[in-house]
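seq as requested:
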Amino acid sequence: MNFYRAQDQARQRSRLLLLLFVLLNIGLVCLINLLFAWYLWVNDDPLLLADRVFLDYLSWQRIAVVALAIALLLLFASWLKWLDVKQGGGAVAQQLGGEQVLPLTTDAAERRLINVVEEMALAAGVPVPPVYVMQREMGINAFAAGLGLTDAAICVTRGTLDSLSRDQLQGVIAHEFSHILNGDMRLNMRLLVMLHGMVFFAELGRVFVSSRSSWWVDSTKSRRSNRGYLVLLGLGLMLIGWCGVMAGNMIKAAISRQREFLADASAVQFTRNPDGIAGALKVIGGSHVQGRVQHPECQEAGHLFFAAVMPSWLWSTHPPLDVRIRKVDPRWDGQYLEPQPSLKSAEQDVDGKIKANRPEAQVIEGLLGALAGAELMDYAAPDQHRQVAAEHHLYSLARDPYDARMILLGLLMDGDHALRQQQLNLIQAEDTALCSRLMACLDQFELLSRADYLPLIELTLPALKSQSANQYKAFKRLLLKVVQADRQIDLFEWVLYQLVSRYCDAHFGARRARENKHKQIASLADEYALVISMLAYHGETADDITLKAFNRGAGMVGLYTLKQVKPAACTREAFAAAVSTLATATPFLRQRMLKGMVQVVRHDGQILPIERELITAIAAVMESPLIGLDDA
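struct tokens:
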């Protein structure tokens, strides 16, 4: 499956959605104009205007005024919803009743959920998103929210945690990750914003109808009471608004149903286990509550969820359960499964082993191979003489919001004693307790191999997002001071700072404008040549092998005459500037370039830690996942 092609398709559907939305609004304008014309007609005195006709109230000037007013109201209502959505997936999850799960939660079911999300993030080559649970919802459901990789969040209901096995939960989470990766999540957010205006008009009509004086009361005074007609106007607005809502639901259903099939297929690809996603769907079918969610705002956001929040709804945004199951499991016998009432002890043991052995390379390699079939992230064999207990301690600390800062600072400690002391002094000046904590763990950092650095960084990201905005800003300032302590920034420091900035800044409201201005690889040839030259030099030792790796990356994007950049010109500053420029390409072009980079680092059959760090940081700057880059 090509996720970038899926993203392009999602953008095409966005344009179709915009066209349908415009047509829907035109219909709305016509109906409301007729309604206001009727209201003005019945309120005019027939004695003063004896020859009046209904069409006299449909002048072009009046139509234009009403259309402008409607457009402004729709834009205002959509803007209000956008203010909520642009805060990120975590804010959307909280609005729908989700409560964030802390990385160090002691709840067994929540701990299992965190482990599964971490596994899928590693397999997909994306940062671990924050996780939320709708504690009061017993239906089996989940959703992914956000506008991109940098602000995505995963939310599940309590019923999902209590009713599904580990494999079934893994299938659900894989389904949601596919929505993140193939562009559906952003499309769903746009649907939520665009269709909110329809609900706004229905609610406006309800306000008119619920006014204190009803039509029946006013009719005792005058059959042509203005208040009575105002209530009728409100009823008309309600009817038109809810017709718009139903039409909007039809648009959502038409767009999102096929995306659910794609996400189900992606979940099988990620997990290599069709029984996981199929089993989750069977349990939903066997549950008396199925995927129902009671929160009042969830009906409007129903297209975000894994299963239909109102299974019997006429225009459901999800295909029927039996159809989805047979797509994944053609041999299904038609029997649904009973929900499991509690977490099995065997599954707790599995999660415990995964947690205990997470630092070991073979575990991560197994996850990545089994879940994604990706050779991109092959980790080098671990040093058999390392003290595993110390590593376990650091991996556990990486999930704590306070200790996560210590982990990142510890990875930046310089090998030179004098410079390291200078870095510690900078940390002590800002936070004495943090410095003491770091000094107590310095010996454990020395036991880490370079292959452990990137997994540790990725595990700290959700913990960093648990801080307040002021805490995060203070930490970023301290991080930059430590990086610049030696008055220069090396490649690893650039990688670490980029990963933290790209995946955490958006969570705290700092967003970068995305410019997809480069559509042809020829306009980026110089920058691309520098980046793949840098990757080739870091992975190869012999000049002839380095050149072959470079040519392989150049040929992947069709630049067969591209010349390799000399090592002296491949500075960190030039490399960082080139990556930033490549990030302004269109998504499809970014895909081609990332594929070429992957071919460069894989040319010799292995990927060194520095190569993996560089390409992960490049993907972060480009806001692109690494999964699927080795597909034909």
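The two ends are 9 Å apart (CA to CA).
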